[in-house]
Amino acid sequence: MADPIATLRSSIRSPSDAIRWACVLEATAPKAGNVYPSQSFADLTHVHFVTAAEITATHLGRSADRISAAMLSAVQATREATGTNVNLGIVLLLGPLVAAEQLVGGSWQSRIAKMLASLDSLDGGNIYSAINVAVAGGLGEVDAMDVSNPGTEIDIRSAMVLARDRDRIALQYATDFRDLFDNVVPMVERSIVEAGDMLIGIARAHVRLLASAPDTLIERKSGQAVANEVQRNAQAVDVDDPASMQRFDDSLRSPDHRLNPGTTADLIAAALYVLLRQNPQATKSST
């Protein structure tokens, strides 16, 4: 059976290509509780995600830009075009990945460590502004270092370290993306290769990731007990059984979308970018 990832990777010519494909594939796969072509929210549709994918690819693909400025402009342009914060988490994850990819020497993850260590107060201000443009106070509240309440000097890395236990995107910044490279990328790759299909594999990886850890967006919106219950329900899903997958998807649908596992979806988009840009064997973290 042909590897769908390798087949698509052979057509990728630039970071922008990979960003566009990663975002559109993630948004199109029938992932439980998320928006996809046949499932919309009252204020959010698949078209919003596709629009945001193009904007993200355009802005983050400008290699001459300071990456934090590109991240801010991507979120601003998306807000203007769609009226949503649909790509905030994806931009927060893809920005460091794209910037680190351009550095020389070492594994991709080791380059991310260097890139994150180099973030200064201007970068912190740009990233903080992106979060505020997207109206994302839900990243949490931790006094002086909270990303939603900065002082005059913005140390975004320290803010993310403080938020790491309640936000899995912040965890990536705090650990040089070790969680992404060690856990998410291998799961997404295995699920796609086993399925022999990108979209089916992504949907299965999504459930498996939800089974392995609570989604932190659900936890912030609905509390730890609810997030843990969703995790237990995901553990009971047979990913090879479409009916089981559908029941789980149905269980996450509610008018207020408080069970939308959005952080897990963002991590999948980031993993797809990694898989489309480079053989994952070259990205694994060192022990």
From TrEMBL:
- Specify the signal sequence span: none
InterPro entries from the UniProt entry? CitG
Q: Name one GO molecular function term.
A: triphosphoribosyl-dephospho-CoA synthase activity
Q: Does the keyword ATP-binding apply?
A: no
This protein's record includes keyword Manganese: no
Swiss-Prot/TrEMBL keywords = Transferase
Pfam families attached here? CitG
* Gene3D superfamilies membership: Triphosphoribosyl-dephospho-CoA protein
Under the heading PANTHER family, the entry gives: CITG FAMILY PROTEIN
The protein's name: ATP:dephospho-CoA triphosphoribosyl transferase
Protein's organism: Rubripirellula reticaptiva
